[in-house]
Specification:
By secondary structure, this protein is an alpha/beta fold.
Length: 606
């Protein structure tokens, strides 16, 4: 295990011990040990374990050193496994309910005998929770609301987590000798921020081995359907997956249909009907009369296509791909992310679809954290990870002092970090250049957390809201606009503060904030954290069309988090964003120029 994986185990041990009511000092030892691990370099941990010197690290005693060593060497810890087995699973599940920490869970368990979320809901409904010391009516209402949200959110899954399940299944299906073609479809393929279930479309003739392989996947809890054309499973996470098996000649139609969206498909069927054709998951057939579909296809190709659209190999050839399906209906290929029934068909007909931004276009990112605040990797480790991704630059924007819960930096610590960044760049140790920034809290009245002199010493400033979310829409909008108007504000972080499937965003007038950002030359980020994806993709097409510049930032709190830009790219593509509309597709020289002047010139884009 690496240091962050070990830290996760230590943190979970501390939480489980707190659920059991263990000595607070013992509980805190594990939580503190996790923080210590995060603050040291991975190479240093490797050396300390190898040389059996873990106990020399402040905050790590004999017992903790033994457990860290065991996890580092074997990836398992018997103590941890026995501890998990000793606690009611329902109590652990309650940790997912907002407003419930280990102490409160232990209280409702000990005093009310509650062992499940269902039992907790019943105890709230009849007022027993409110009657407990330390709870009250407001806490009870918050817990009930959290339970309701958990039930609603539980029906969907983050795109990032769904993709982690889907990717190896697609790869495995393609590797089967019986499979000619295989793709994931549905909202996952369209890059929606959350996914209800997984859809896999497979072209195969000998289907029995394919179905058997599919239902035998690791993590499958239940097989809900098994047949010659469809199989369905449910994973332990609750995520459902459907496998649809079709002949190879139907593959393109099935893939298009099950990718969706519903609105896109309705408009495509209407377009086919206008050409005398009927489009479905099974194929393209004459809508009426005895004219063959091949003749209709040939007619559509000749009359409907612009010269730059490539038709199928011959007018009578079957439709073998989605590109050919779109071409038959007189359209350029429409990327899956755009298939939402929001004007993509009209744009495809006119040849006006944008060249969407891609992961490979990114040259760096700005909103990232280190162990200086609440990150889990050091400055050097984050820089090395960015270099491994081939990035030209990396921005470090640790929290400011008002974010005390995130170990926010005060003026002195920030100055020290800036000096460390400048020294790292001067050393030539990494090819990746590091920009020194801050994620500066927007205070409730719109002031920033640092004064002008501090902000002026930085390369850039991300301004974000981290507290007092219950302000009215008017007050929150005015608060954010005041921060945007600050002369040192470079970009706005996570516009609404939402946490997908966990917390709704605060109320804000997005249009007014976009107007203010454009007027003041401030970037709005597309926070690529899979839990945020904020500003929402539904706002980007209009905003970028009016001149708003985007930065796709992972808000990474560890090295692995840098890869979250992939989720941000999905949302950027859904928002019709091009490479030119995203700041961090620019070269290092161009970004330096932009940060120095606050103005962007296409002439300096490369």
């Amino acid at each position: 295990m690496n240091k962050n994986e070990i830290a996760d185990v230590l943190t979970e041990i501390g939480t489980l011990l707190e659920l059991k009511g263990e000595n607070p000092f013992k509980t805190r030892a594990y939580l503190s040990g996790a923080r210590v691990l995060e603050s040291i370099e991975q190479e240093e941990l490797d050396t300390l374990v190898r040389e059996e010197r873990l106990k020399s690290v402040k905050g790590i005693g004999d017992a903790l050193a033994q457990k860290i060593g065991e996890l580092h060497t074997t990836g398992r810890l018997e103590f941890f496994e026995k501890l998990k087995a000793s606690i009611e699973p329902g109590l652990v599940a309650m940790l997912e309910v907002p407003g419930l920490g280990p102490k409160k869970i232990k209280a409702v368990h000990d005093q009310l005998g509650v062992t499940t979320i269902e039992g907790l809901a019943a105890a709230c409904a009849d007022g027993r929770v409110a009657a407990l010391a330390g709870f009250g009516e407001k806490s009870q209402e918050k817990i009930l609301a959290g339970i309701r949200n958990r039930e609603a959110y539980g029906k969907r899954h983050l795109w990032w987590e769904a993709q982690a399940v889907a990717a190896p299944i697609v790869a495995g299906l393609r590797a089967l000798p019986q499979v000619a073609r295989a793709e994931a479809a549905g909202s996952l393929r369209r890059g929606m921020e959350t996914v209800g279930d997984l859809d896999f479309i497979v072209a195969a003739t000998d289907v029995v081995p394919v179905v058997e392989w599919f239902v035998s996947q690791p993590g499958v809890k239940e097989v809900t359907a098994r047949g010659e054309t469809k199989a369905s499973v449910r994973f332990e996470s609750g995520l459902q997956a459907d496998l649809r098996l079709v002949p190879v000649e139907q593959f393109a139609f099935a893939l298009h249909h099950f990718t969706g969206s519903k609105d896109h498909n309705v408009q495509m069927r209407q377009r086919a009907l206008a050409r005398g054709l009927s489009l479905s998951e099974w194929g393209l057939v004459p809508a009426e009369g005895d004219e063959t579909v091949k003749a209709k296809v040939q007619s559509a190709q000749v009359s409907g296509l612009k010269s730059q659209v490539s038709p199928p190999a011959s007018p009578s050839a079957p439709v073998a791909s989605e590109a050919e399906l779109f071409a038959v209906l007189g359209l350029h290929f429409i990327p899956p992310e755009l298939r939402e029934g929001l004007g993509e068909i009209e744009a495809a007909e006119a040849g006006e679809l944008p060249r969407l931004v891609e992961v490979g276009d990114l040259r760096g990112a700005f909103h990232n954290h280190t162990t200086a605040s609440d990150g889990r990797n050091t400055l050097s480790e984050m820089t090395a990870a960015a270099e491994a991704l081939g990035w030209d630059y990396l921005g470090i924007a640790d929290h400011s002092k008002s974010s005390f819960q995130a170990k926010g930096l005060d003026e002195e610590r920030l100055a020290a970090q800036v000096a460390e960044i400048r020294a790292l760049n001067a050393s030539g140790r990494f090819k990746t250049h590091v920009f020194a920034g801050t994620e500066c809290d927007i205070l409730p009245d719109g002031r920033l957390d640092f004064d002008d002199a501090v902000l002026a010493a930085l390369d850039y400033v991300v301004v974000s809201v981290h507290n007092v979310f219950n302000q009215s829409s008017a007050d929150m909008t005015a608060r954010i606009i005041r921060a945007i108007e600050h002369p040192h504000a470079t970009m706005l972080g996570h516009l609404t503060g939402r946490l997908l499937l966990r917390r709704e965003g605060y109320q804000v007038d997005v249009t007014k904030i976009v107007d203010a950002a454009i007027a003041n030359g401030v970037v709005i980020e597309l926070n690529a954290s899979p839990w945020r994806l904020d500003m929402d993709w539904r706002h980007w097409r209009k905003a970028a069309g009016r001149g708003l510049l985007c930065a796709i930032n992972p808000d990474a709190h560890e090295t692995a988090g840098l890869s979250h830009v992939g989720a941000g790219i999905n949302s950027a593509r859904k928002g019709w964003l091009t490479k030119e509309q995203v700041l961090n597709t620019r070269s290092l020289a161009a970004v330096k120029s932009w940060l120095a002047t606050g103005h962007w010139s296409l002439a300096t884009s490369h």
